[in-house]
UniProtKB/TrEMBL annotation:
Signal sequence segment: 1-22
Species name: Iris pallida
Family, per entry: Belongs to the polygalacturonase-inhibiting protein family.
UniProt-listed Pfam families: LRR_1, LRR_8, LRRNT_2
Protein name as catalogued: Polygalacturonase inhibitor-like
Annotated PROSITE patterns: LRR (PS51450)
Length: 330
């Protein structure tokens, strides 16, 4: 008798499980609209006769069947993922979406559609290595759940909207390798900040000295001027500071270095003057320190890991630095 009861119960459980994982009808409609926005033969696995949760680049919630992730990735070696055209407005009709990614599609052009503002559950937005152009959208601060914003290696231009700093949960901001202009907003606070390879000007906001959130900062290959010391500090927890190839000009003599976390510093090809403080010897984690092509003078601190890992090229082409690994001080 127990076996007779067990079989129907198992079948019923499997049926319920199957229903819960099936793609939502409205989400399938939105996905088919996305497919139809691209040229024919794009996204060949997106077939209306199959559960859309099984389609390439689509992931659904196991308990809801709603589309939570849409990640288009690839390069020329993976043609199905290379998209040509603009980002479809119908992407905004996937209300449960948490992750949206377009990468490796240089044929993706146009601007970022304002319909994405409807994706209020979005936690990660990545549009990289594409032909997308225009300004950074003003609607982005409306995506209050956003934790990762990556818009690198596109053709975006104009200023960085200060309102991006209002995204309280944002931990990664990557706007590198675009054509952005203007100054760095003082509101930015993400732990990982990548703004390299743009045309940014002005100085680094002095208020950054009060922020403890920065962990990795890349500002290289811009036209920044003035003082970079706000990123430094004996008790800061930053690990990477990359500032090379700018027009930074400040006295390095009084700069103090994080003692527990600092690993990588590149301030080469700037106009930095003064000397290197002996306090850098207390930076226990330091592995790389490049201040070449500046206007520094004085004796290079020696001892500990700092001396162990540094070579002459990292101090070359300064005004009058001396001591190992350069020539002896007079």
């Amino acid at each position: 008798m127990s076996n007779i009861l067990t079989i129907p119960t198992t079948i019923l459980f499997l049926a319920i499980l199957s229903l819960s994982s099936a793609c939502n009808v409205d989400d399938q409609k939105a996905l088919l609209a996305i497919k139809n926005s691209f040229p024919a033969n794009t996204l060949p696995t997106w077939n209306a006769s199959k559960d859309c949760c099984s389609w390439d680049f689509v992931q659904c919630g196991s308990d809801t069947g709603r589309v939570v992730s849409l990640q288009f990735w690839g390069d020329a070696s993976t043609p199905p993922s290379v998209l040509n055209g603009s980002i479809p407005e119908s992407v905004g009709d996937l209300p449960f979406l948490e992750t949206l990614k377009f990468t490796g599609s240089p044929g993706l052009v146009g601007t970022i559609p304002p319909q994405l503002a409807k994706l209020t559950r979005l936690r990660s937005l990545s549009i990289t290595n594409s032909g997308i152009s225009g300004p950074i959208p003003s609607f982005l601060p409306q995506l209050a759940s956003l934790e990762v914003l990556q818009l690198s290696s596109n053709k975006l231009f104009g200023p960085i909207p200060p309102a991006i700093g209002s995204l309280a949960n944002l931990s990664t901001l990557d706007l590198s390798s675009n054509q952005l202009t203007g100054s760095i907003p003082s509101t930015l606070h993400s732990a990982l900040l990548y703004l390299s390879g743009n045309k940014l000007t002005g100085s680094i906001p002095p208020s950054f000295a009060n922020f403890s959130s920065f962990s990795i900062v890349h500002l290289e290959n811009n036209q920044l001027t003035g003082d970079a010391s706000p990123f430094f500090g004996r008790t800061k927890t930053i690990s990477n500071i990359v500032l090379f190839n700018n027009k930074l000009s400040f006295d390095l003599s009084g700069v103090e270095y994080p003692e527990e976390t600092l690993e990588y510093v590149d301030m080469s090809h700037n106009r930095i003057y003064g000397s290197i403080s002996e306090q850098i010897l207390q930076a226990a984690s330091i592995l790389y320190f490049d201040v070449s092509y500046n206007q520094l003078c004085g004796k290079i601190p020696g001892g500990g890991k700092f001396a162990q890992y540094q070579g002459a090229k990292y101090f070359a082409h300064n005004k009058c630095l001396c001591g190992p690994p350069l020539q002896a001080c007079m």
